[in-house]
Design goal:
Pfam families: Peptidase_C2
GO molecular function, one term: calcium-dependent cysteine-type endopeptidase activity
Oligomer: single chain
Radius of gyration: 34 Å
Number of helices: 16
Protein name: Calpain-like cysteine peptidase, putative
Shape: elongated
Strand content: 25-35%
Largest sheet: 9 strands, mixed
Distance between the termini: 37 Å
Number of strands: 42
Keywords: Hydrolase
Enzyme class: hydrolase
């Protein structure tokens, strides 16, 4: 991440052994492109340090030095550093300059063609020098405007005004000590035969107390039948149970508890978790899911416990109606992930995926997006029939107390039933969310009551309305659940899978060569699409995978459909960076919309890509249709306050007159500073005689970006070549650059030393 202006200033002060100015630090907090130090006392001894800082910051474009004490020495420093800076506007009002100092400022304007404005009102300086300085600055401005007239702006992707929702999630790569194994039907029959043939109690030798990997010290274990004989508990019936699960007071298994309460609300517990049970033999078989595929876990009924004051207590998850089922289910989960110690590492989404095979997305209600946008997202998902669950997880005891006082129970699921907009006199009044939660007997302090919006009791659940503001403040986040067995989204009409790679970083000039896909909605209505990525390997480094989406071309052959003028800056929208080696993005594809998706990652990686959708959606992997040439070089040739490439790049074709399409991608190395302004000047002709930096035949817009892309359509006469000259502004910009040229034609390439031409 680039350093802030304040951080850069402190670093420069430390480097030059100068104490920082408190007032200047306060001004730099805002990070503006316009830096005004006219109200700050700037000692002469601090002038070099200050100007060195200006040189380091390409984001400072306007410098106001009104009233600052400037002598000959300071004027020389000003010229030295502004020649290497990105400042284009300078104000020197209310300053007394002698002839020597004014001549230095005049020379600065001559040598720095980027300086297009110098303010000198109320400045004591010979009038003839003022006229000369203003004339030079006017010529600089006219020259810049002339160059802009030949510029081709960076490629932008047109975005639709229709609101779009998208949800993203990543999955961390947990290095568990035990891997889930799919039980074959033959193994299952052997277990069945063992249980029915012998009266002895089943013992799971693969998961004994010594391998529980339990976070509680001094743990012991007890058979559930023995525990029932020692206590007042009995084995409650699991089916039809309305009791909530409660977490352990000995260690953190709250996310598992939350997941089971959510599943209990949707009556999923009795559908798929427990496949077989043999109570007399103590054998229980559960079904979980890994990567959407079912696996079977066999466990015995030996559960962890502690003895306190002669009393035996099961330390894990419990339920008031079925404590045995809670303990044995937690044991199966612990066995699946390598031990009880790892229970606290899995998120709520991880547990939902493990227990049901569904996909879970988190919606952050407190993001900086407008309230109406977040509400419309929930409303759209709700109307499409998706299941939405809100879950209050307080971070502190104070937050927990506030929630409890408002009647909102922590760590139990609140299901979102409906969303609505309450209106009075045909005008907008308030956004509303209808929730359902198990009855707790508490009075809901913030429940919304008005006309048809009432609190009710339905099937032992409390159904009530909240304003969206109160809802967001209480929960902060909600979860979208996509079930694999009864939700239409997972019963996809269209699912395609690809093997693909991301070889180049988003800041690389070769970024467009990464794998790209075309996703097209061939229907007339919006439809949800899910794109999931799984890394082929699990390296220890953070992959940082990301999907970037661009406006696509749906008609024509595949060769005409792929865009190469893509970068991270011009995406229509993008996923978040996935935390681990797996991730998914879920978004709505607008009617008849066509998108190009391009992969990005921090390190070269291979992925399995799955594109799934409900509606009439097609997905293809786009072939590589353009050839590319990549030039790496340095820009150390200084001219008119610009750093030009040491080499002019020449591209030649042996064919006759023709029209060609070019995409230029220019990237600069990244550092602590923000990106410096850079661009490319171009000419077409038969020799280097056409190269003139004041009269380019074509040029890119000057951009402050790590990577900028530009498209050109050029007509070349027979025997003509293309000459390209990259440049950057600012003496502190990184030395190296990469320029990649994408074209449908193949060119012969060569280099000419810039100093031999300019």
């Amino acid at each position: 991440m680039a350093a802030t202006q304040k951080q850069t200033y402190l670093s420069v002060c430390k480097q030059l052994n100068e104490p920082p100015l408190r007032q200047l630090l306060e001004t730099l907090e805002y990070g503006d492109a316009r830096l005004d130090v006219s109200g700050i006392y700037l000692p002469r001894r601090h002038f070099r340090c200050f100007l060195h800082f200006i040189e380091e910051r390409p984001d400072i474009e306007e410098l106001i030095l009104d009233g600052v004490d400037v002598g000959v020495k300071e004027a020389k420093l000003l010229k030295e550093h502004l020649l290497c800076s990105c400042v284009t506007k300078l104000s020197l009002q209310r300053i007394k300059l002698d002839s020597a100092s004014a001549n230095i400022i005049r020379q600065l304007c001559i040598e720095n063609s980027n300086l297009v404005s110098v303010m000198l009102p109320e400045t004591y300086v010979p009038s003839y020098l003022v006229d000369e300085i203003m004339l030079i600055v006017d010529l600089n401005r006219l020259n810049v405007e002339s160059l802009r007239s030949t510029n081709t702006a960076g490629v932008l992707q047109g975005t639709s005004t229709i609101a779009r929702w998208k949800l993203c999630r990543g999955k961390k790569d947990h290095s568990f000590s035990s891997a889930l194994q799919l039980s074959s039907s033959a193994t299952k029959r052997m277990v069945d035969d063992f249980v029915t043939s012998y009266k002895s109690v089943f013992i799971d030798f693969s998961f004994q107390p010594g391998t529980f990997n339990h976070p509680v010290a001094g743990i012991e274990a007890i058979r559930w039948s023995t525990y029932c004989g020692l206590s007042m508990f009995h084995k409650g019936k699991r089916d039809g149970s309305k009791g909530l699960f409660s977490p352990s007071s000995h260690y953190n298994n709250q996310n598992l508890c939350a997941t089971l309460n959510i599943l209990r609300f949707y009556d999923i517990l009795s559908k798929s978790l427990l496949l077989e049970r043999y109570p007399q033999s103590g054998l229980y078989v559960f079904r979980f899911f890994v990567d959407g595929l079912p696996v079977e876990i066999c466990v015995d009924d030996l559960v962890p416990c502690v003895y306190v004051s002669g009393r035996c207590t099961v330390v894990g998850l419990s339920s008031c109606c079925s404590p045995f089922y809670a303990a044995i289910l937690e044991k199966a989960v612990a066995k699946a992930i390598g031990g009880y110690r790892y229970l606290q590492e899995l998120s709520l989404c991880d547990y939902i995926e493990l227990l049901t095979g569904c996909t879970c997305f988190e919606v952050n209600l407190l993001r900086q997006s407008p309230v109406s946008t977040t509400f419309d997202t929930l409303r759209s998902l709700n109307e499409d029939g998706h299941k939405l669950v809100a879950y209050a997880i307080p971070r502190t005891l104070i937050e927990e107390r506030i929630l409890e006082d408002s009647g909102m129970c922590c760590r139990i699921p609140f299901t979102i039933l409906k969303t609505d907009i309450c209106q009075k006199h045909d005008t907008h009044y308030v956004f509303l969310v209808q929730l359902a939660a198990p009855l707790t007997g508490r009075l809901l302090k913030y429940a919304f009551e008005y006309e048809i919006y009432k609190t009710e009791e339905v099937n032992e659940n409390c159904v009530f309305w909240l304003t969206f503001e109160n809802f967001a403040a209480a929960f902060e986040r909600v979860f979208l659940l996509l079930w694999p067995f009864d939700d239409a989204v997972l019963n996809h009409k269209a699912t395609v899978e690809f093997q693909a790679a991301s070889e180049f970083l988003s800041g690389s000039s070769q970024f467009a060569k990464n794998s790209s896909f075309l996703i097209q909605n061939e229907g007339g209505s919006s439809t949800p699409v899910m794109v999931s990525l799984v890394a082929s390997s699990a390296p220890h480094t953070q992959i940082g995978a990301q999907c970037l989406f661009y406006k696509g071309v749906g008609a024509g052959n595949e060769a005409s459909q792929r865009h190469y003028n893509v970068s991270k800056n011009n995406a229509v929208f993008e996923s978040e960076e996935f935390e681990g080696n797996e991730g998914a993005v879920f978004f709505n594809l607008l009617p008849a919309e066509c998108l190009q998706m391009t992969l990005s990652s921090h390190v070269p990686s291979s992925f399995r890509i799955r594109i799934s959708a409900v509606g009439n959606v097609s997905g293809i992997q786009l072939p590589d249709t353009m050839v590319s040439l990549t030039f790496s070089g340095k820009w150390n040739t200084l001219l008119k306050a610009k750093r030009f490439s040491d080499d002019i790049l020449r591209l030649r074709t042996i064919d006759g007159e023709r029209t060609i399409n070019l995409v230029l991608a220019l990237s600069q190395a990244t550092g602590d500073s923000p990106p410096f302004p850079h661009g490319v000047l171009g000419w077409n002709g038969t020799s280097t005689n056409v190269v003139d930096t004041t009269k380019p035949g074509f040029s890119t817009q000057q951009e402050k970006s790590t990577l900028c892309v530009h498209s050109f359509v050029l007509t070349l006469a027979a025997g003509e070549s293309i000459f390209l000259l990259p440049y950057c502004c600012g003496g502190r910009c990184p030395d190296g650059y990469d320029l990649t040229v994408f074209c449908e034609e193949r060119f012969a390439q060569s280099r000419v030393k810039t100093t031999s031409v300019l």
